[in-house]
Amino acid sequence: MALEQKLLEVEQHLQEVSTALLAADAPRLEQCSTTLRDAALTFARAMAQVPDPTALPAALRRRIQAIGSLLAIQRENLLRLSAATSRQAAALLGAAGAESTYESALGSRASASVPRRVRAAG
């Protein structure tokens, strides 16, 4: 069955994403996520051709529901990883405000130290 093969591909790519997410392997996660998205899109197109999805075998419907649950869990884990990464970056780099240029560090002295002809050109 072509639909079942497409579902199997989604499941395999979902497992690859899970592995990359657990390993916190960002490049692999990005690659696996792209292939998962493509497989999921192919599967969704195949499902759109099914006249009555309720007529699918119960085992197939359970697998589809399991994928939905796993995707929700992965989305949540990805948000957690993103938050942890943001905290780590903030700890390493310090909290940078909206003004993180040299001028903000110098305050009002910056414009006073710039020659008048340079200020006029800017």
SSE succession: HHHHHH
User: pLDDT under 50 segments (min length 5)?
Assistant: none
Q: How many distinct domains? A: 1
Question: How confident overall, as mean pLDDT?
Answer: 82
Gyration radius, rounded:
25 Å
What is the beta-strand fraction? Answer: under 5%
Work out the number of β strands: 0
Distance between the termini: 67 Å
Describe the global form.
elongated
Largest sheet: number of strands, sense, barrel closure: none
| Helical fraction | over 70%
Give the helix/strand class. Answer: mainly alpha
Count, helices: 6
Write up this protein.
The protein has 122 residues and is mainly alpha-helical. The protein has one domain. Helix content is 80%, strand content 0%. The chain has 6 helices and no strands. The protein has helices at 2-23, 26-48, 58-93, 102-106, 109-113, 116-121. The protein is elongated.
Helices and strands, with pairings:
Blueprint: H1 2-23, H2 26-48, H3 58-93, H4 102-106, H5 109-113, H6 116-121
Features:
single chain; 122 residues; mainly alpha; Flagella synthesis protein FlgN
In short:
It comes from Extensimonas vulgaris. The chain is mainly alpha-helical.
